[in-house]
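Hi R.,

Here's the chain you asked about this morning:
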Amino acid sequence: LQTINITLHYEERVLPSIINEVLKSVAQFDAIELITQRTLISQCVSELLTQRAAQFDLLLVDISITHLSFRPEFTSAVELKQRFLVEKTEQSRQANVIAAEGDARAADLIGKALDEVGD
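And here is the predicted structure, written out as tokens:
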């Protein structure tokens, strides 16, 4: 069996293959998941990369997802959604206050009506 020495220029031979594994594993998740589930995604990527690196007799010690960037359109859409959710929550809170005031007013009117009937 022929032995292939990859110690010379391994970054040209091995890294492209490993980078493809990163891209494939990250592509399984949508942008929101990439933001909200970074730990889970790091574990998934780490497992896949560890397996792939082992095929080249490389030991992967650790990985870290440190920087994610998205298109400005996506970032803008996420910010708009956040503003919408905040506004929706505020409107819901105001609706609850109005409903509670209405219930209190109704109870007051019913109480007065019962007092008048009792007299």
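One quick note: The CA atoms of residues 78 and 96 lie 27 Å apart.

Cheers,
M.
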